[in-house]
């Protein structure tokens, strides 16, 4: 279980994250929504300790992650796998080697630099690719893949880390609708089959409603909504974004908005 307690990140006079407290359980797919600059990306960076909080704490199963240093911190970052909008693959390497990068930190450096990975690692990489319908492309250069295919390879690489948690920062923002569905379905399966929390920053309200078990909205660094996707009515979205939003299906129930601190 992940617990954020009074989490705050200050940049000069600006609070990018302002006193966020959340509890996220295993198996949840939590969509973080909000306008650009609301603090969504900073929140993910605080969770995996790519940046340090000004105040507050991040706890995993009772352990205070904000106190981790050195080897313990590096291990946490591996356990907290991150997927980015820009894929971050090496275009000149083949697909399977890109996936095997997920275990480099746990293997001897010399053989890894020579792309000499144990057979067991290669077998695991193929299985991860197969789960995403990408095994046939294992020997292709990453540069030959479409954006959606590259994002699936990035997810396979993250799964190679055997993470306790999966963080995704706008993973479908640059994808067409079909590939966006494939990627979101893969994140859903990771949560359901591996029993890990998946936290994903999203701009699309439709995707949040379809694929997330829970939606958290941020504005000016604070949580202003925390509820089920079907409670994300047009009226609630108006308050989050300050603009008129497309109305969800008529079956959606209204929900009160969490007051900003």
TrEMBL record:
Pfam family, one: ABC_tran
Keywords for this protein: ATP-binding, Cell membrane, Membrane, Nucleotide-binding, Translocase, Transport
One term of GO molecular function: ATP binding
Cross-referenced InterPro entries: AAA+_ATPase, ABC_transporter-like_ATP-bd, ABC_transporter-like_CS, ABC_transpr_PhnC, MetN_ABC_transporter-like, P-loop_NTPase
Domain ABC transporter positions: 2-245
Transmembrane spans: none
Protein name: Phosphonate ABC transporter ATP-binding protein
PANTHER family cross-referenced by the UniProt entry: AMINO ACID IMPORT ATP-BINDING PROTEIN, PHOSPHONATES IMPORT ATP-BINDING PROTEIN PHNC
Lineage top rank: taxon: Bacteria
Signal peptide region: none
